Amino acid sequence: RWAEGSGGAQGVPVGSEESWRVLEDLRSLRHRRVVRDPRYLREAWMSEGLFILCNETVNIWSHLLGFLLFFTLGIYDLTAVLPAAGASREDFVICSVCLFCFQVCMLCSVGYHLFCCHRSEKTSRRWMALDYAGISIGILGCYVSGVFYAFYCSNYWRQVYLITVLAMILAVFFAQIHPSYLTQQWHRLRSVIFCSVSGYGIIPTLHWVWLNGGVGASIVQEFAPRVFVMYFIAAVAFLFYISKVPERYFPGRKFSSGCVFFPLQLSFL
To answer: What is its main location (predicted)?
Structure first.
């Protein structure tokens, strides 16, 4: 239809400056404006993908709603729950850090699923790395509150583990947003980072069990199953993620492993 109705569009190579001029003209008919910067045009269209039904719709909105959930919980906890419980300043700080990590996790995933189809491979891979960084920060955020309250009566070990977790958050974030993170040369480092983030929680957990008198202690029997359930949920989510089920059996469908991974991820956090 372009060739018949707009003579100038016939034979225009896709991605060329001329093609962007044609798209700008078509765009102006709808929005009564001409976008002169092709980069802005591409980003504007992808931003509008937030309101278009596509393969990423569920992933985008589930993570966006997850962010709003943690943001609302943060406001409620900091303004109602903690003051009513007579919480200390440290309780406020720990709660804020923990919920902030969860919100970063959700927003990074929103950005990735929104811009993963960017025509620039470099931009797409940067968002993917940022998504990985957000997931790692969300997991480490779980350790912040767990370590703080598990070692509440042992100030020395509480400080040791908290400093370690916060240092890991910073180190993992800067490592995963590094331009070389997704390259083959960093393959081994990626494995080390993943194993460190996932397995770190086992160390303070075993230490906490030992300090409280072993597995026979009543407090251990009450809380240890919850830790086990958390790791079980994480393991199931990871299996869905690496196996790419169900999209490997039903390619092209809107329902993907990400739709399963997110509810498990949310319940883990």
So the answer is: membrane
